[in-house]
## 1
Amino acid sequence: MNDARDYVAAENDKGITVMKWRDKREVSLLSTKHSTKFVKTSNRRSQTANKPQIVIDYNKAKSAVDLSDQMTAYSSPLRKTMKWYRMLACELLWNIAIVNAMVLYKTTYNKALFM
């Protein structure tokens, strides 16, 4: 159970929440969507812990970005001889287009693809 030593939070009348929470390290949070609500969660060792809803939503969204980055790393068309601005354009356009095409194909045809 979290007590006053685990977190410090403030919310203004406009709905902006500022929180400093300590899990293994101190985590500073700023949100216009969340409040200071805590949710019980279970970890791998079947222990329960209270985490802020902000952290749970952030980790859920972050996993999708990590998966997208992992998929683009498998099929990168980049070459070492390219200039930095061309490499940036390739990364942003080609890799994201490849991942988006794969996601659309999987959702349209309900097929599992392995890269």
Note: The chain has a mean pLDDT of 77.
## 2
Amino acid sequence: MGVEIERKFLPAGEGWRALGEPVLLRQGYLSSDPARVVRVRVEGGCATLTIKGPSVGATRGEWEYPIPLHEANELLDTLCQRPVIEKYRRRITHAGNVWEVDEFLGANAGLVVAEIELASEGQAFDKPDWIGREVSDDARYFNSSLIGLPYSRWQR
């Protein structure tokens, strides 16, 4: 079993925009139940099927498998819950860690989330100056939650 230990933050300012090359991702969910998330993702010419277990703190079980691109596109177009998540991702290296900054499109346009994957929950890491408030414990920011309640419908 793989393990994902991830923390999420909102960017502070626009400094991240000049870093990293944006890549378009499309992802959809066959199951968005927090106890068993099943995701299909297309990134460039590659596709994956990912299964995630329930979160305990910032940790959850994760299993990821490459799948044929044409099958991923079929799943995204026919079986995945709506809306399919579309976003631009930038991978930015800072102080030896990789930050993934997602700028969402469509029903989630206007939302930007920065994530870092860690080796342990207690791992220390240096935050870039463009990292703001942590939202790891706010389920609204989970990609699987954004299909049920897109950012465009949040009360702000």
Note: The chain has one helix and nine strands.
